[in-house]
Design goal:
The protein is α/β, with parallel strands linked by helices and about 230 residues long. It contains 8 helices and 11 strands. It folds into 2 domains: about 120 residues, 3-Layer(aba) Sandwich (Rossmann fold); about 100 residues, Arc Repressor Mutant, subunit A, CATH 1.10.10.10. A hairpin with a 2-residue loop joins strand 8 and strand 9. Helix 2 runs parallel beside helix 3 and helix 6 packs across helix 8. The chain is elongated, with a radius of gyration of 18 Å. About 30% of the residues are buried.
Length: about 230
């Protein structure tokens, strides 16, 4: 198997060089940029298996860089590093297209764990391709990430799309907030955050609100279920 290539964009040379050294020690091929615009040029000139982006970057911040990359590539895993820890900050990162979010300071092994999980998901040849997930008139194309209900297009952010995919894969089964945290956010459930409820509402507003028949239901104390009406 070819060496996994990672693009690391962080404007703090000490942190970037330390992370690069650790990743290389673990067998990864790492390219480092200290500026958002330079990082994007590097991304354009080479295919990477995973991206690690800081948010506070000169030239182009991490949110802007992530959005720009997502315009042409919805598949490459993106992890954002930041000292910003509020719920709004996390939502902005996920809405920009990030797959995961690590708050500074952090332990290096946490980054390693998240990289392994995302790579396993993105590089797994057993992942289904070329087919649909369906519940009633709600259809998701797993290749293009297009979502339709009753023939109408539904535009989702990257994280909303991942959440809906998980609900579709578990349709007619109640999934807990802890299940969603592990399978969509790759994190242990944190009782101090309501980010899962926020995103459930985002998806509901797009999938259910325009239609008379509701598909996503809350089971108080248990979790959520997408019903195949």
């Amino acid at each position: 198997m070819d060496t996994i290539s990672i693009l690391l964009v962080d404007d703090e040379p000490r942190i970037a060089d330390m992370l690069s050294f650790g990743l290389k020690e673990n067998g990864y091929d790492v390219t480092v940029a200290y500026d958002g615009k330079i990082g994007y040029r590097m991304y354009e000139n080479r295919a990477f298996d995973l991206l690690v982006l800081d948010i506070n970057l000169p030239g182009m911040n991490g949110y802007e860089l992530c959005k720009l990359i997502r315009m042409t590539n919805e598949q490459v895993p993106i992890i954002m590093l930041t000292a910003l820890s509020t719920l709004d900050d996390k939502i902005e990162g996920y809405d920009a297209g990030a797959d995961d979010y690590i708050i500074k300071p952090f332990e290096f092994r946490e980054l390693l764990m998240k990289i392994k999980v995302l790579l396993r998901r993105s590089l797994d040849p057993a992942q289904p391709t070329g087919h649909m997930l369906k519940a009633g008139e709600l259809i998701m194309n797993l290749d293009t990430r297009e979502v339709k209900r009753d023939g109408k297009d539904i535009n989702l952010t990257a994280k909303e799309s991942q959440l809906l995919e998980y609900l579709l894969r578990n349709k007619n089964r109640v999934v807990s907030r802890a299940d969603i945290a592990v399978n969509v956010w790759n994190i242990d459930f944190d009782t101090n955050t309501n980010i899962i409820d926020v995103y459930i509402n985002y998806v509901r507003n797009k999938v259910d609100k325009p239609f008379s028949e509701k598909m996503i239901h809350t089971h108080v104390g248990l979790g959520y279920v997408l019903k195949d009406n």
